[in-house]
Amino acid sequence: MITAYGDSMSGNCYKLQLVLNMLDVDHLWQEMSITNGETQTPEFLAKNPQGKIPLIELDDGRVLSESNAIMGYLAEGSDLIPTDTFSKAKMYQWMFFEQYSHEPYIAVARFIQLYLGLPEDRLAEYHSLHVKGHKALAAMEAELAWQPFLCGSQFTLADIALFAYTHVAHQGGFDLAHYPQINQWLIRIKQQAGFLLMES
């Protein structure tokens, strides 16, 4: 059985929960708290020297980190990964976009607002994050204006990856009312079989 280590309030960990639930993967979820230092214990650092979650551990002791890599492993051979070569490449394009052009801005703004309570010394950073965060949302809005999901008509890992922090973007001060296509996309994702609400 796969053991998954994660924090249910983390978008990167929530991605795994969605894939595990949607694909009905037999697993054990090990809840961990970054703020309580649980990822920095000698036991966990022996599994992942970076002290980061999410992480999965296989029966044979092998471990895998980085949320999008884990999702790819879990979903191999499933309908969450396109079989068409170009569509699969588009899926990875959006997953790289999520990690480099979306998550660093929207997730960090959420952390500053939700977890830190907008401290004075991080307000300038917080507002600067909004510029690039809205740029990422605008790119998604444009893509979703002509197709139901990010890779066309098929719901893929790219949608899960970008759903994780987009659906809670308001917790980082982003008003999604300005993005009607994204809002319709969020509804479509919530209608997928095995959808699981994020813990709050």
Automatic annotation (TrEMBL):
Keyword Transferase: yes
A GO molecular function held by the record: transferase activity
Gene3D superfamilies: 1.20.1050.10, Glutaredoxin
Span of domain GST N-terminal: 1-82
Keywords: Transferase
Signal peptide interval: none
Residue intervals of the GST C-terminal domain: 84-200
Keyword Cell membrane appears in the UniProt entry: no
CDD domains noted in UniProt: GST_N_4
Name recorded for this polypeptide: Glutathione S-transferase, N-terminal domain protein
Organism: Shewanella frigidimarina (strain NCIMB 400)
